[in-house]
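User: Predict Transcriptional regulator with XRE-family HTH domain's structure from this.
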Amino acid sequence: MRQRWIELGDFLRTRRGRAVPTVATHGGRRQVPGMRREELAVLAGLSPAYYTRLEQGRAPNVSDQVLTAVCRALSLDAAERNHVWRLARPAPATESAGSDETLRPQLRMLLDALSPAPALVLGRDRHLLAWNRTAHAIHAPHLDPTVVDDPATRPWWPELLFCDERVGALFLDWESKARDTVADLRGELGRRPEGDRLAALTGDLRVRSGPFAELWAEYPITACAHHDRVYKHPVVGLLELHDEFLELSDDPSQRLALFAAVPASPSARAIEQLANLSTIG
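Assistant:
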């Protein structure tokens, strides 16, 4: 319970640091960027003492009206406002919280049926739960394709992206992919900030990866629903793919990721080539 209020305070503090001050300083530049707590409190109609407690994670009974006023004062966008509300008003934990994830057999069948179109499933902590032969051939051909079948060996996607040079080199705009990945993790923690496993995973990665730690501190929050990305694949060269990340109705924390190229384009032909080269049946 306490962790989500600390998480909310951290988020508000980062956004206050980016906010445009409303009062000019006298005698030069400010020592710190953004608004002071006192300025933000005035804009939100709160006392500085109460807003300070909110940032310190010591205001667990914050009202809807106060949350709305703070979001407005910080000029948060829709994704950021949703994140605030998920932290302050979290949904009840599901029965699968903290247990090994399972994949419905029908989803496995769906992934295979979609081939040669690449498709994969990410778990609630963003482990790779399943992929079809083309998704494996694109994203991690150096890994044994069956590694996703055993809960003990399933790769954690953020770790691959930040710590495996072969995976990181796939993305022509790695910085954009990395930021989106961190934003997705921040958003998922917002759904369930008491999730010890994901908190532990991200804490460990902050120690092991400087770029991850820097992005984590920036606290990006964006809706990671669809993207257009360019891959630099070691076998077929450049791939221009559109992706869609869909929440599964029976487990919204799991994501079905679908990838597609423009029909009859060089990227579409490259996907066909990768599917033919793959040995996954």
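The CA atoms of residues 174 and 206 lie 18 Å apart.
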